[in-house]
Amino acid sequence: MNRWLLWLPLALFGLFFAAFATGLIMPKDNIIESKMVGKPMPAFSLPGAVEQRPALSSADLAEGKPTLLNIFASWCVPCIAEAPHLLALQQAGAEINAIASRDTPQDIANFLNRWGNPYSRIGTDTTSKVQLELGSSGVPETFVIDGNGIIVHQHIGDIREEDVPKILKLLEDAK
Amino acid sequence: MKRLLILVSICLVAPVAAQTSLPPAPYADRQLDDPQQEAAARDLMEELRCLKCQSQSIADSNAPMAGDMRSQVREKIAAGESPEAVRSWLVERYGNWVSYDPPIASVVTWPLWIAPIVLLLAALWLARGRFRKPKDGE
């Protein structure tokens, strides 16, 4: 028997130990980034979600000015958490359009009355069709789009206070 | 007992309320009329990963988003697209991650195909002594 082979079980144990320890210390993130970043916004046209705001189509997102596209839903709790930061972005001059995911007009109107409405246009995506076109896998998500309608960034999850300057800079850079 | 019931119902209610109240997309749980197209769509759905519950295929998942994906798959197949075209449409958006049939020729996914063969060879090598005829006198 090769003497070195004696150490094989220990080496294997070390290997498995390291694998499990990394899994415990750094759990894998299950965030699926969209492959549409860097590509033009796919063509879509969504009906309006509420009476107070016009409908949204991909043409509205390529009018020369960088914009944000926020995907939200009234049934989504982190969307409430990010609402004040979206308002801050809007007050700082960002144009924010929105897609309401799997939602009803009444619920969306209630949500906006309660948590504020930073949106210029809101389209309603009742079957996640446009979300799938965008490579988006949940709510909330926010896309930064340049004036030519190219997606330059995808923010997954709710926008926190510390993300606001970062997103404003991305909008500035996209000019 | 009553307290326990209340506790259990609280645990059950919150996740339900965190879901959308809208009905599923038209073809999420409805088969296509053409049995051949339905079979093709079904086979593809078994090989597409749910975005929400990431260890399930969209055929197995009850997540609303998986239902929306099933509906899209069926609608595209019904419109005459090939299953492979629908798969690449999704891979283009979500990466190879979304498909349970990873390409062999990709830098990231080839070990998935090679690893079982390597492990089998290693096992044979380890077990090779067992297959030898016992020597005389042993």
Our estimate of the beta-strand percent of chain B is under 5%
Task: Give unreliable regions of chain A as ranges.
Answer: none
Would you identify the CATH H-level superfamily of one domain in chain B? Cytochrome C biogenesis protein
How would you classify the helix and strand content of chain A by structural class?
A: alpha/beta
Q: Helix segment count of chain A?
A: 5
Number of helices of chain B: 5
Cα distance spanning the termini of chain A: 69 Å
Percent helix range of chain A: 25-40%
Instruction: Give me the CATH fold name of chain A.
Output: Glutaredoxin
The residue fraction in helices of chain B comes out at 55-70%
CATH-level-2 architecture of chain A: 3-Layer(aba) Sandwich
CATH superfamily of chain A: Glutaredoxin
What class do helices, strands and sheet pairing of chain B give? mainly alpha
| Arithmetic mean of pLDDT of chain B | 86
Number of strands of chain B: 0
Report the major sheet of chain B. none
Question: How far is the N terminus from the C terminus of chain B?
Answer: 69 Å
What is the highest CATH level, the class of one domain in chain B? Mainly Alpha
CATH class of chain A: Alpha Beta
How would you describe this structure to a colleague?
The complex is a heterodimer of chains A (about 180) and B (about 140). Chain A is an alpha/beta fold and about 180 residues long. Chain A has one domain: Glutaredoxin (3-Layer(aba) Sandwich), CATH 3.40.30. A five-stranded mixed beta sheet of chain A has the order 5-4-3-6-7. In chain A, a hairpin with a 5-residue loop joins strand 6 and strand 7 (about 150-155). In chain A, about 35% of the residues lie in helices and about 20% in strands. Chain B has a domain at about 25-100: Helicase, Ruva Protein, domain 3. Helices cover about 55% and strands about 0% of the residues of chain B. Chain B has five helices and no strands. Chain B is extended, with a radius of gyration of 23 Å. The model of chain B has no long low-confidence stretch (mean pLDDT about 85). Chains A and B meet through helix 4 of A and helix 3 and helix 4 of B.
